[in-house]
Design a protein that fits this description.
2 copies of one chain form a homodimer. By secondary structure, the first copy, chain A, is of the alpha+beta class. Chain A is built from 10 helices and 12 strands. In chain A, a hairpin with a 5-residue loop joins β4 and β5. The radius of gyration of chain A is 20 Å and the shape is elongated. The termini of chain A are far apart. The interface between A and B is large, with 39 and 39 residues. Chain A binds a DNA duplex (30 and 30 nucleotides) through α8.
DNA sequence: CGGTGCGTTGACATTTCTCAACTGTTGTGG
DNA sequence: CCACAACAGTTGAGAAATGTCAACGCACCG
């Protein structure tokens, strides 16, 4: 990836969108491309905070590990999104770990130290940072709401509806951005439970999973589930 | 509360701590005191975002209501803390509702419009805002981790350990900042389940609830629970 | 003094997890 | 190029945890 591409990529990030080209250029000067393999660790929870990252290609999962070994997925970062900005700006060590979940994942790494200095000089940058931090906040609020839905099918439905879908042959197709095991971790349910819910939906003609694609035949049932919890499906 | 008190109160908030007195004074000029009664609504989810708030006395809960009526508590705000800054700065409507949970709750209201203008003029303010947004982010990440702990006793233990405690007669005493019903909502469990967990802990001599106080007799069991999940207690 | 709502307890239904076995796919090394 | 290992995904059976419904005592407030 050339320097020009880095610049172009950066200016499309929520943080920098709308900022003058030369200002983003300042950031691009110390940004570095980093390629990681499937499963490679980008940083570990507790490690010194030296940079934040944006994903250019592939995918990253950000997760926390409790002292007992339990892992909770916090985010799945997809191309065009960034992560660890909050940590890089205000913390000395990463509060979570990050790992590539696709092969040939390509990151743009923005070192914290020069960036902090630049931000002090350039108040225009903080506007974008505040906006992007707020977006994270909203996203996390959404995650909390999702996790607080008690029933597993409702949680799954709610999550699926937040995913982008495209139309094909008159029904919606959702491309799952992660393996089903990871999705289960994201929703804090056992992989077996996920499998059974999908099975039940298939039997009822609601939706059918085909590899990493999910074909939704009756989106209204899904919406009812995501919303109201459990009554809707049981009645049918 | 006099203008001087408002100023002093504001300068102690995380956002403004360490800033020049005259700068905080600028904020204090348009800040207003607002008193609310127990149960009174401060703002509703979806309402136009006109201000953010700091709690001077009493307590506030911030919660989301799903279209079906389910309520999830996002935060409990206590004196010295603030809420809705992210919304006020970047959103047009509140993403959650807020309601006083104590009688004679006293808030300091900072209108969004003059504050946004001030922040544009005064980059020094953004530093504090970014820091405080990051703190919120971390707090939410903590909540997510908490909610993703699958077992209810572990979730409760984890939460209790994050609360301030004082020593008395050789054991820790935790003052619960909310009713048990609210606490249950916070942890996304049924009030009955909470009651039963506390009962079980009392029977085992781990901790005993006395009104809104919780006397912890064996904090190590609590820590083991919060951490490892379920094995520790069952074995004992 | 009567109502309202929290907190507790019991009984029961349901959901979800756990453990275990089996399949199919993918990637690796001989 | 194939055999084998590793692992996602599925399915089944049983156990455990939690929610639901219902009843009751109790404190607080009007």
């Amino acid at each position: 990836m050339s320097d020009g591409e880095v610049l172009q990529f950066l200016s499309r990030l929520p943080h920098f969108r709308g900022l003058p080209r030369e200002l983003v250029g300042e950031v691009a000067k110390f940004a570095r491309v980093r390629s990681v393999e499937l499963g490679e660790t980008i940083f570990l929870q507790g490690e010194a905070c030296t940079a934040f990252y944006a994903v250019r290609r592939g995918g990253v999962r950000v997760f926390r590990t409790s002292s007992e070994g339990r892992e909770q997925v916090l985010h799945h970062i997809r191309p065009g999104q960034s992560f660890a900005e909050a940590a890089a700006l205000t913390l000395s060590s990463y509060p979570a770990s990050a790992q590539a979940v696709e092969r040939d994942t390509e990151l743009v790494k923005v070192p914290a130290e020069p960036f902090s200095k630049l931000i002090e000089r350039e108040p225009r940058l903080t506007v974008g940072m505040v906006a992007s931090l707020s977006t994270w906040l909203l996203g996390l609020v959404g995650r909390i709401e999702e996790l607080s839905i008690s029933s597993a099918p409702a949680r799954l439905a709610h999550h699926l509806l937040s995913l982008p879908s495209r139309e094909r042959d008159g029904h919606a197709v959702i491309q799952l951005p992660m393996t089903k095991k990871e999705l289960a971790g994201h929703l804090a349910i056992a992989p077996e439970t996920l499998s059974r819910i999908l099975r039940a939906w298939k039997d009822r003609g609601v939706a059918e999973s085909d590899g990493s694609e999910l074909h939704v035949h009756d989106s209204r049932v899904l919406e009812a589930l995501a919303d109201g919890g459990r009554s809707e499906i049981r009645a049918t």
